[in-house]
Amino acid sequence: MRRDFALREPTLAVVLVAVLLGCQKPKEVATSVTPDPSIAEIVSAPPEPQRHEPTWFDIGSNDRALGSDIKGQLDRIDSILPSKLFLTANAATTSLFAESESQLPRLRELAADSGRAADPRVYMVIAVTASQRARNDGTILYKMLTKNADRDAGRPWFIMGAKIIELHEEGSMTLGRIEMDPGTNPLFIGARFATPFVEGDRVDVVGYLAGNYTYETKIGSKFTIPAFAVAGMFKTGTIKAMNRIVKVWVKDVVPDQLRDMPRKF
Asked: In 3-state terms, what secondary structure has residue 57?
């Protein structure tokens, strides 16, 4: 099995379109469902209701309450993005909220995505918690994901300057592959929004690791690669710009806050 595949015979696009068109024929979809979440499920399934309003900890922990796969983590993202409660829950996060208020027009410009009304500060909270996790728990290498992707499923994470290998959109759904490391190591991505980007572009992405994703081509070849549920996809340099805007956050958030609390596994 090739590690980095081109999927030109047939292409990933052909496979994705075939599955998406099959969504209109429930019986046919049912016969092709595998243990991994299908594209149809990723597109159509509404997010399950959260048990409570998300907190800073819910956003930064390996929360698998809605599932450790792409669908579950996209449901999690959909439940997080509309909420502002975690930004005003205590003195520290209220400060974060207030300090960035004057920058909201610029933040909205940086974090623009189609079909959403999320407060752009939510993306920054995901990025900040990902940075805290990297500082406290160590970074994540591709070989770690290929060895055991489920271990880090649900962990917040971001990539800066990732090259888009393949990108396909159907309505408000985006699917494809990006490079985790420069020139190597593909990640399968799913996002519930359309983007202005095309193959070959470099982007900043923020979201959650989502275990493995396995799919089968029409010739019977199966491919399994680590997956990433995308909360936001921006032009490269955006995450650095956001960090400059909210540099005060570093002093307001207790560095050991996440490490000292039990993880959700």
From this structure: helix
Before 196, cis peptide (omega within 30)?
A: no
Q: Are 155 and 208 in contact (CB under 8 A)?
A: yes
Main-chain phi, psi angles of 251, to 5 degrees = -80, -25
| Residues 23 and 44: beta-carbon distance below 8 Å | yes
- Asked whether the beta carbons of 157 and 140 are under 8 A apart, the reply is yes
| CA–CA separation, 81 and 79 (whole Å) | 6
Question: Domain-by-domain residue ranges, the chain?
Answer: 12-252
Q: Return all residues near 217 (Cβ < 8 A) that are at least 6 apart.
A: 7, 10, 15, 223
In terms of pLDDT, which residue wins out, 43 or 96? Answer: 96
The answer to whether 146 touches 223, Cβ cutoff 8 Å, is no
What is the reported pTM? Answer: 0.75
Contact between 83 and 53 (Cβ < 8 Å)? yes
**pLDDT: which is higher, 210 or 258:** 210
Multiple choice CATH, 12-252, 3.40.50.1470, 2.40.50.140, 3.40.50.170, 3.30.70.260: 2.40.50.140
Tell me the helices (H) and strands (E) count for the chain, helix number first. Answer: 11, 5
81-121 per-position pLDDT tens digit: 887 766 666 665 666 667 777 777 877 777 767 667 777 88
Contact between 60 and 156 under an 8 Å Cβ cutoff? The reply is yes
Which of 97-111, 180-194, 237-251 reaches the highest mean pLDDT?
A: 180-194
Top mean-pLDDT range of 31-45, 89-103, 117-131, 249-263: 117-131
